[in-house]
From TrEMBL:
Classification of source organism: Archaea, Methanobacteriati, Methanobacteriota, Stenosarchaea group, Halobacteria
Source taxon at top rank: Archaea
InterPro entries for the chain: DUF7261
Pfam families for this protein: DUF7261
Name this polypeptide is given: Uncharacterized protein
Amino acid sequence: MTASTEFDAPDRNAERLLSRAVHDATSEATGEFAWDERAAAAAAVRDHLRPRLDALRSSRVESGTVYQVAYNRTAAAAWRDANCPGGPNRQFGACESDGGVVVQERAGGTHVLAVAFDVRVTTDDTEQALTLVLRTR
């Protein structure tokens, strides 16, 4: 893997697009599902993201840049473990990760906290791999 300035634009492009897509997808799913429907909430986020991921994957093929995007379940679980407090004094309920999507129980509902991705950017002469965990706000 080579990190070079020629990848600054493609990796920033991927992060910007995914960040906007995650914001849109999670704002639609947050609060719409009860906690016992959390798997459906995570699936709804992934369904909403599908067209945006497909658009990124095909966005610069003509210019020789290829994006591969996949959900990163391990990064989501690690983010959950590092960012969701446990114990009796926590403000909100439990957190879970489901297929790269981190959710938390809040007042009986499902709140989407973050989505994790692996992104690989390939050009004719080089390749860059990154892991993004994008938080919702």
